[in-house]
Design brief:
56% of the residues lie in helices and 28% in strands. It is of the alpha+beta class. The protein has 2 domains: 84 residues, no CATH class; 69 residues. Helix 1 packs antiparallel against helix 2 and helix 1 packs antiparallel against helix 3. The longest helix has 31 residues. It is rod-shaped. Pfam families: DUF6232.
Length: 158
């Protein structure tokens, strides 16, 4: 038996697909497809918040420098304001790696609910629904490979 994918709730082997305790023998699956749901505004808002957190200190630094030049104070005051603004801008540095990592994971997970469907015993059955795009892609490809390899060569050609 070949295992194509295996995690806590999904197992795809050369004989069956098991999802949350339900077993679907590959010999009874004739077609596999997927559907995408609507975008999650919560995920998109989270990405926007991360972008604002990255840009906020830089915008504050630029505004501080513009303010220092606009006030036209003594060189000491201007240098102090510009220095403080630069420090505020540099504050984004240590946090940027953390925020970029969260932003990257957000794109890997995706912003839509994804569904994996199969024609099982002649009826459409939803095998899986998840918002994790990376995991979904791995499972979907594993099911495709398993179904393709379970069919006889003559059926694949025709």
């Amino acid at each position: 038996m070949i295992t194509y994918y295996d995690d806590r709730s999904v197992q795809v082997t050369s004989t069956a697909v098991r999802v949350d305790g339900r077993t679907f023998p590959l010999t009874e699956i004739s077609l596999v497809w997927h559907q995408r749901g609507s975008r999650s505004w919560r995920v998109l808002a989270g990405r926007g918040a991360i972008g604002a957190a990255l840009a906020g200190p830089l915008v504050a630094a630029a505004l501080g420098i513009a303010l220092a030049l606009w006030l036209d104070r003594s060189p000491t005051v201007t240098i102090a304001i510009v220095g403080a603004s630069v420090l505020v801008g540099l504050a984004v540095g240590p946090v940027a790696d953390f925020l970029f990592e969260h932003l990257d994971r957000s794109y890997a997970r995706g912003s839509r609910q994804l569904e994996l469907w199969a024609r099982w015993r002649g009826h459409p059955v939803r095998l899986l629904r998840t918002g994790d795009a990376l995991r979904f892609g791995q499972i979907y490809r594993a099911v495709q490979r398993a179904v393709e390899r379970s069919q006889p060569a003559a059926a694949r050609r025709g």
